[in-house]
Amino acid sequence: MDDVEILDVDDENSPRRSLLKNQDLSPLGLTGELLSQYGWHLLVATVMVYLLIQHLRKRRSSHSTPPPTLQDATLVARRQEAMEAARRKMQEELDAKAAMFREKQKQQEEEKRRQKIEIWESMQQGKSCKESANLSQTSEEASSSPSALKPKTDKKPLRSADYNPLNGQGGGSCSWRPGRRGPSSGG
């Protein structure tokens, strides 16, 4: 089948003989050989290069943002002014609270100083410390604000007064005891 004769007819109607043989496709053979050996590698590399190009295009387009417009600048300036005003207001409130706290501290120190003076004067007069302490407590209660926290006196105790956890009886203690360890001596 190597020697096949094909007759062609030209425009002049003269038959021409040409021998068609298995021609060597060496340029295609090399490409086919490369594809057969490294085809998947080449395909993956091509896809990676494509993805890399797409990523770089996105990155370049995101970096090239339009220049800020006048409207954006005024909007930013308004936001900054509003934030500054809010900070100023908060700082003024904080300063006012700090001044009130300092004033309360001064009043408390003055009260303590006055109580110490009263105790010292009562000691000079010969009264006991307990009497002067009672005087200072009554004056302290009178000077304290009505919003001060007072302990509740109508509370019931959580346990009865005769409860003792070391007794082992009553008051919610458990009466179950574990059994003896070891072999039973019943039989």
Portion of residues in beta strands equals 5-15%
Major sheet description: 2 strands, antiparallel
Number of helices: 3
Q: Briefly note the structural class of the backbone.
A: mainly alpha
> Shape, please?
elongated
For the biggest β-sheet, the strand order reads 1-2
- Elements, N to C (H/E): EEHHH
Fraction of helical residues = 55-70%
Indicate the low-confidence ranges by residue numbers. none
| Total strand segments | 2
Quick check: average pLDDT? 77
End-to-end separation: 108 Å
Instruction: Please give the radius of gyration in angstroms.
Output: 52 Å
Care to describe what's here?
With 187 residues, the protein is mainly alpha-helical. It has helices spanning 26-63, 70-125, 129-143, and strands at residues 4-9, 15-20. A two-stranded antiparallel ribbon has the order 1-2. A hairpin with a 5-residue loop joins β1 and β2 (15-20). α2 runs antiparallel to α3 (129-143). The protein starts with a strand and ends in a 44-residue tail after the last helix.
Output the keywords.
mainly alpha; 187 residues; two-stranded antiparallel sheet
Question: What's the structural blueprint in terms of helices and strands?
Answer:
Blueprint: E1 4-9, E2 15-20, H1 26-63, H2 70-125, H3 129-143
Antiparallel strand pairs: 1-2
Helix pairs in contact: 2-3
